[in-house]
Design goal:
Layout: H1 21-45, E1 52-57, H2 62-71, E2 76-77, E3 80-82, E4 86-88, E5 91-93, E6 97-99, E7 104-108, H3 113-119, E8 125-128, H4 140-151, E9 170-173, E10 181-187, E11 195-202, E12 205-212, E13 216-218
Antiparallel strand pairs: 1-7, 1-8, 2-7, 3-6, 4-5, 9-10, 9-13, 10-11, 11-12
Helix pairs in contact: 1-3
Length: 219
């Protein structure tokens, strides 16, 4: 009978230090983002324009992610709009500012998969829209146009929209990270304002997204 040795020599890898695995991974992430931010900034200084991408994040954490990216020197943007007014005990409370599209943050960075993968290490970030290898790109002009429309109040909750959409109806998205994409209405709006839920085909699946009615037009 052949006896097997159960004795191992050597020392465990990466156990000599006092930092945790999560801390080491955070340093790797921060290093990649620092490098990506520097290259992107140098490109802007030299007159070039890096593309924009959309990060999918936890709803309600959009501004937190934006602040984290800004602190690292990564250019990011969450276009905002005025939300619905609320009524409390007969009083009208003015609507608060909210993202135009919940759950997304726009980021400008060099289109290299390792830098985009570094974004996934940030807290509250779920993924890069389209994936790190073949992400959905947005031009600098489109981001400026989208943000300009938001600043003008075009997507505010109370802004009336002369558009009626029904569940199952195909529509076209006119601006933002899903610009020029076909969508299908899931939950229609009934008051000529506010938001509707649409389904967008991405990467072989359907992604539900809540968007302002003002962002849509009929095919």
């Amino acid at each position: 009978m052949i006896m097997q040795r159960s004795t191992f020599t050597g020392s465990p890898i990466a156990l000599q230090g006092h930092d945790r695995f999560a801390d080491r991974m955070r340093r790797i992430t921060d290093g990649l983002l620092d490098e990506g931010a520097l290259l992107t900034a140098n490109l802007r200084i030299s007159g070039g324009k890096a593309p924009w991408f959309a990060l999918r994040v936890w709803t309600g954490r959009e501004k937190t992610v934006e602040k984290s990216l800004d602190a690292m020197g990564v250019r990011s943007l969450v276009p905002m709009r005025k939300g619905p007014d609320l009524r409390r005990r007969g009083r009208v409370i003015e609507g608060q500012m909210m993202p135009v599209i919940h759950g997304y943050v726009l980021v400008q960075m060099m289109a290299l998969s390792e830098y985009l993968a570094g974004l996934l290490g940030l807290e509250h970030v779920i993924d890069v829209l389209g994936g790190c290898e073949r992400p959905m790109r947005l031009s600098d002009n489109e981001v400026s146009r989208f943000n300009g429309l938001a600043r003008k109040g075009n997507f505010d909750w109370k802004r009336p929209v002369h558009l009626v959409v029904r569940a199952g109806e195909p529509v076209w998205i006119t601006a933002g990270p899903f610009c020029d994409r076909k969508a299908t209405v899931v939950t229609p709006g009934k008051k000529g304002r506010g938001d509707v839920v649409v389904s967008i085909g991405l990467m072989g699946g359907e992604v539900p997204v809540t968007v302002p009615l003002a962002l849509l037009k009929k095919l």
